[in-house]
Design a protein that fits this description.
2 copies of one chain form a homodimer. Chain A has about 260 residues and is α+β, with helices and mostly antiparallel strands. Chain A is about 45% helix and about 20% strand. Chains A and B meet through strand 4, strand 5 and helix 6 of A and strand 4, strand 5 and helix 6 of B. The structure holds a DNA duplex (30 and 30 nucleotides).
Chain lengths: ~260, ~260
DNA sequence: CGTGCGGTTGATGTAAATCAACCCATGTGG
DNA sequence: CCACATGGGTTGATTTACATCAACCGCACG
């Protein structure tokens, strides 16, 4: 799959009306932390791009590879992960609709991690040249993208605290809180209940635990009324219960955070 | 201490000859991953700044605070850390001489973590205005600083893998490997042996373990001939032994990594 | 010459891993 | 339409890596 992403047609057609609606989610994501004037927003929305639909589990980029395009996640979920020598896997970032998936390849030669879809997903593949032109022409957009990078790094630091210092229950609750907040940020209207389309094994890889222990911890959270489950479906129920269990604070998400 | 950093004199004197030598370490750090022409290097070296000496343990910035200057670490060590509700502490980054300590405050309103010296240290405090002017005038410098931010994020991801998926022995060995590589990168000539001026308690907070367990794990590493200790002094002995124990790969450090 | 911080050591406790079944829904091919 | 394979998920028994608790040590330093 990652092979498919590489050969982008360089002289891509400019965005059509339908395309413009597509990138709205990305603009909303950036507005969550940065102010953008309407012409900046329009410029973003009319970025030329290629729409690509992926299956769950498809690779977008592999460690050691070089990427020459910039994928934006329009729908579905994706994640970054790294592998240890013994085969252990650690998911190091979860990306939700509206997120830019690989801004760093613009500046670093090779990828230091794998990038894979979690669910079926739609990507907008933007040619690097178009993105570079946009960034050059519009400082506010450049700044918003940089803030996006900084916030992802901040989330990574919070994950370090989460995995390094919290027990399984708080760790899981913290992740679910974060997911809720982030989903709300890009949603047009706050979704009543959030569906978490992730297997217990993936949760384990995300939180540095085992699938078996995730299973038992989920049962505890369900018993506390924090979440609901039916079959393989996991939904977030009472966010305040999760909040209390995780002792959650969201300052690290830097909502509406741009300085100056 | 962090109070002291804030009131920077805006009309700071331009750098003198002595100052220029001071910032050399920062330039060397950036050259570790980015190409910079000699005029870019000179511009960096002649950044106006204020020299500040700090004691071990002094705070440079606290979570929730806002910073209005950019500190560069000239000598000594510093680290970023976060606190959990139960008092647990996680060190989320270790900074060595040559590192910029707080580029993100240029773009985010408040700090999401604490920044503290590990040892006595010397900082160059650069006024934001001067840094902004430099970045505006010299795209190559701007790019190098961005690459620096991206590499720090990459290191954070590797730490997630380290803490989430490796056992105590490999975890400790991995950290010592990383420190060695990073120290070599900014050194004028590769130091024969690296001295790690960090307490066992700090190592514990860095690796998500307890001081007691760090102590026992250090003994194991010493037994394997990987490190040497005398009194409270810890030095890295055979890097290849550490390498093997940690199954270390340094691609995540992106050495000489700038693309394009 | 105490005092305190960092380090060391042993005994004990425990959260989470591991091992090993088994269940169930879904999909698939005969 | 049923046989069966497959990928989660669930559950209990057992093990283990690391945490916790509690001393004690020894150097540095005021």
């Amino acid at each position: 799959m990652s092979r498919d992403l590489s050969p982008i047609v360089p002289d891509m057609a400019p965005a059509t009306i339908a395309d413009i609606e597509r990138l709205d989610i990305v603009v909303r994501k950036l507005l969550g932390h940065s102010r953008l004037e309407s012409d900046d927003r329009d410029a973003l929305r009319s970025l030329p791009h290629d729409l690509r639909r992926l299956e769950a589990g498809d690779y977008i980029l592999r460690e050691g590879e070089r990427s020459d395009c910039c994928p934006l996640l329009l729908s579905g979920f994706a994640y970054r992960h790294k592998l240890a020598a013994d085969g252990g896997r650690q998911i190091v970032a979860l990306k939700i609709p509206g997120d830019a998936l690989d801004l760093q390849s613009l500046f670093l030669r090779v990828a230091d991690h794998n990038l894979q879809t979690l669910t079926p997903a739609e990507l907008a593949i933007v040619p690097i040249a178009a993105l570079e032109a946009l960034v050059k022409a519009r400082p506010a957009v450049a700044r918003a993208l940089l803030v996006d990078i900084l916030i992802e790094a901040s989330i990574g630091r919070e994950w370090l605290l989460n995995i390094g210092r919290r027990n399984a229950l708080a760790r899981l609750a913290h992740f679910l809180c974060e997911l809720t907040y982030r989903m709300h940020q890009t949603a047009l209207e706050p979704p009543a209940r959030i569906d978490v389309p992730i297997t217990q094994e993936q949760l384990a890889d995300l939180l540095g635990l085992t699938p078996v222990h995730i299973n038992r911890t989920l049962k505890t959270l369900e018993g506390a009324g924090a979440i609901e489950r039916s079959g393989r479906r996991l939904t977030i129920g009472q966010i305040d219960v999760l909040h209390r269990i995780a002792d959650y604070s969201d300052i690290y998400l830097h909502r509406g955070a741009q300085s100056a």
